[in-house]
């Protein structure tokens, strides 16, 4: 495997784990995602087929299509993490007061807050995509 293949494979595995984790939280644990979680899912879920197809074809286009999705997700999860940490005021949070919220202290997996996990996943995917060559064959 080339360095490019390793980077894209790692990005794919991180995106797949994040996608399966989000589906597990929602479908198995029954936790309804908040608005920011939905937006982050919109950025994360398409990364799985984009990265898989790029690996399968070996065309190096994962960087072209994956970078905007990973960057959008990183920004959203950064904002979400800021809300969770209390750095951003709750008055500008898109989550409703009586709807689901990932910013309360009960929303953790393995004692790690969901917004922080999402931020780490997007940062890892983005780093892998930046490290890949991103050249067409």
UniProtKB/TrEMBL annotation:
SUPFAM superfamilies: DsbB-like. GO terms for molecular function: protein-disulfide reductase activity. It holds the Pfam family DsbB. GO terms for cellular component: membrane. It is a multi-pass membrane protein. Keywords: Chaperone, Disulfide bond, Electron transport, Membrane, Oxidoreductase, Redox-active center, Transmembrane, Transmembrane helix, Transport. GO terms for biological process: protein folding. It is found in: Membrane. It comes from the Bacteria. Gene3D superfamilies: DsbB-like (1.20.1550.10). Its main location: membrane. The chain crosses the membrane at residues 6-26, 38-56, 114-132. Belongs to the DsbB family. BdbC subfamily. PANTHER family: DISULFIDE FORMATION PROTEIN-RELATED, SPBETA PROPHAGE-DERIVED DISULFIDE BOND FORMATION PROTEIN B. This is Disulfide bond formation protein B. It comes from Paracoccus aurantiacus. The lineage of its organism: Bacteria, Pseudomonadati, Pseudomonadota, Alphaproteobacteria, Rhodobacterales.
């Amino acid at each position: 495997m080339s360095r490019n293949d390793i980077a894209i494979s790692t990005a794919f595995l991180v995106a797949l784990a994040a996608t399966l984790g989000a589906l597990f939280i929602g479908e198995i644990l029954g936790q309804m995602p908040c608005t920011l979680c939905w937006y982050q899912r919109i950025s994360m879920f398409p990364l799985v087929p984009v990265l898989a197809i790029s690996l399968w074809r070996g065309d190096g286009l994962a960087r072209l299509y994956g970078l905007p999705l990973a960057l959008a997700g990183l920004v959203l999860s950064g904002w979400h993490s800021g809300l969770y940490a209390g750095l951003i005021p709750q008055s500008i949070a898109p989550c409703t007061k009586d709807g689901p919220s990932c910013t309360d202290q009960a929303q953790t997996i393995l004692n790690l807050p969901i917004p922080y996990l999402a931020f780490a996943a997007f940062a890892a995917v983005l780093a892998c995509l930046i490290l890949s060559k991103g050249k067409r064959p």
